[in-house]
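job 3f2a | input accepted
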Amino acid sequence: MAQPRPVFWSSAAVNDLIRIGRRVAVDSPANADKLLDQIERKASILAVFPEIGHVGRKADTRELLVHSHYLIIYRVLADGVHLLRVKHSSRKRPA
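job 3f2a | predicted structure (95 res):
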């Protein structure tokens, strides 16, 4: 098994998680907790399998679908995996 790499959350990715949690919690705090746990669990997989996501739309990025509605945009660098954003999968992103 590969040596785990550090996973770094950017402030933008953390803010995305906060917004997602707040949005879902309006209807169901329990579902918000489950969703955030699922996103964080999938993100942690990147420590061991950083290439699991597909090539991203922006240069030098990868994207991992972490829930049917959300994906993580990240970069794999020499010092670890850098999580850049957590976005709704239907949102328009730059090509």
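job 3f2a | The longest helix spans residues 29-45.
job 3f2a | closed
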